[in-house]
Amino acid sequence: MNEPGIRTAFKTDIGRRQENEDSYLALNAAELGGRADALLIVADGMGGRASGQVASRLAVSSVRDAFLSGAVADDLSSSLREGLRTANSKVFGEASTKAELQGMGTTCSAAAIKGGKAFFAHLGDSRIYLLRDGAILRLTEDHSFVAEKVRTGELTEEQARQSRFRNVITRAVGLEADCQPAVGSVDLAQGDVLLLCSDGLTGPVPDNQIADILCGSSDVDEACDRLVKTALKNGGSDNVTVVLAVFGTRTSVKRRAVKKEPKRISWVIPLLIGLLLGLGIGALPGYLIFLKPTPKQVVAEKPTVSATVYGDPVPLTYEPLQQGFLALDEAERLNVVDTQARRMVVDGNGKTLATFPARGTFKPVKHTPTQMAAADTDGNLYVSDPVGKKILKFGKDGLFLCVIGEGKLMLPEALAVDKNGSVFVIDGGRLKVIRPKIGEQKEPSP
């Protein structure tokens, strides 16, 4: 189906199962009565055969109906979240009253596009991806046992894909009387691609291969077809479902190659001046030294925070306020403001230790102060670069040291650094940590 500026396509396959427990939906602006430019949903039923089908179909129809009947709001994430909660009540109610449906549940991921922005909500391990300029980003984090292990560093992505516990879901529609959907939003650029899919795709097909298929397909229909066929070719036995939407006027999913931009740090100067004067990190002249050419530096024999090699960003929580507040207290606990204007106290693994009502202390508005720079115990300075989608690191003498998280971040904003050199950053509405790789170091970049 086509909408001015938006092209969508979808495909599902039973795989090697006897029944297809996946359900999906893609509606355009006309079908939505102008509430949004597109509504996309994917659900993967659980409970076996008939009950799984019932759960996924009921979830999709419930989210659709709740979205269409709800009040039109600027933040459609709230509408999607309420839709998932409505779906949860209906699926849980059906399972509670009908013996043949007991134990049924379903994952569900939903996205709505309106005014150049994508809003999304999800429960379970059906994912939503964004492909931009050849790079693929996960907009959702799996609610599963192995995903939690990956977030804490106990498993790698590959180990999680092979684990016998990979199908253990920690949050889903209909498993309990109440649910807590994760929500978020992202501004869209011309040519962006949104992909919603069940784990029948992401189990056998890694993210980089998904990106290659999307970049190498001539249109959205071909992309859907290739994604499903690749999942089956790679040994996938589960139902596989994909829903695609291309934002913008392009008629092809194909993406231009990612161009490596030269490292430009001149824009940081005004930001640093204001931050350094306000935070009292050090004398201004010392931090302006980074304008001079950076010489190669010899790495000290004893590892230091300055010479650390960093791992990939690992998501911790999904509810921090975008453009919000982030700080470490004396006990190295993170203090964050969530999307409901509550203050959350979170440990280094993302576990919520306490939540306090805002009571007017914080307000979830776009001009909430954002701490875009932080210093570590060695005096090194870290600065968020939301335009370049990376974090810049400078030594205490002002010399540029390295880039952190390049190609792995979506919209880095407020950040904090603990005594171990771990960088905590609010990235596109999610709190992430980038930890140093123990024992690994390299010469600072010029």
Record keyword descriptors for this entry:
446 residues; alpha+beta; Phosphatase 2c, domain 1; Thrombin, subunit H; 5-stranded antiparallel beta sheet; 9 helices; disordered C terminus
Describe what you observe in this structure.
The chain has 446 residues and is α+β, with helices and mostly antiparallel strands. The protein folds into 2 domains: 2-247, 4-Layer Sandwich (Phosphatase 2c, domain 1); 268-441, Thrombin, subunit H (Beta Barrel). 22% of the residues lie in helices and 30% in strands. The protein contains 9 helices and 25 strands. It has helices at residues 49-69, 76-97, 145-151, 157-162, 199-202, 207-216, 220-233, 268-279, 284-287; strands at residues 2-3, 6-13, 22-28, 38-46, 105-114, 117-123, 127-132, 135-138, 182-187, 193-197, 240-247, 308-310, 314-317, 326-328, 334-337, 343-346, 352-356, 373-375, 381-385, 390-394, 400-404, 412-417, 423-427, 430-434, 436-441. Strands 1-2-11-10-7-8 form a 6-stranded antiparallel β-sheet. The chain has a 5-stranded antiparallel β-sheet with strand order 3-4-5-6-9. Strands 13-24-23-22 form a 4-stranded antiparallel β-sheet, with no helix packed on it. Strand 18 (373-375) and strand 19 form a beta hairpin. Helix 6 packs antiparallel against helix 7 (220-233). The termini are far apart. The model is unreliable at 251-273, 276-306, 358-369 and 441-446 (pLDDT under 50).
